[in-house]
Amino acid sequence: QKEVEQNSGPLSVPEGAIASLNCTYSDRGSQSFFWYRQYSGKSPELIMFIYSNGDKEDGRFTAQLNKASQYVSLLIRDSQPSDSATYLCAVIPSGGSYIPTFGRGTSLIVHP
Amino acid sequence: DAGVIQSPRHEVTEMGQEVTLRCKPISGHDYLFWYRQTMMRGLELLIYFNNNVPIDDSGMPEDRFSAKMPNASFSTLKIQPSEPRDSAVYFCASRGVKSALDTQYFGPGTRLTVL
Fold it and tell me: What is the model's pLDDT at position B81?
């Protein structure tokens, strides 16, 4: 069973702070990693993907990947109340099917 | 593009009734996925299709669930008979290219309540 683990939270941060969301995965051969944001009552939407070790930045979002330690993280700088949502980590495992395994998500609350 | 379209958006039914959920993928996408999301179990993959052919239905919980994709622009997920434990949000998603970097696009979901 290839697993993706996330702390369910909620993670509560003040407005303007950095929110750090973490995800670990069990399949060492995993290839690609995605972060989805899901607002309450809405569907997941892709916000970041990363496939190489290191950091990838897009606006206020930074994805960090460490394949040796098998974790991927999402940093949100200058957090806004509108960032309050559940963040799902998805991992493409080894094996060639390219079907992602999703974590159960971390709930983020940004309070004014 | 209108994105992935699902209907109905909400469905309330009584135990034992047949439920049919519908999905129209993004035009040109070759992969279609059906997911179920609950608080207890998170997002679960039920079944996926490639070029209208079911590839993996190992996530389908039991024989009460069935899915079809008669053509590239339409898929159904049917539950017969429905049970209260089937209450969940059901998402359809589509993807264009089978690659490690391609992503899925989700529909708005169908919130199913079985009384």
Answer: 96
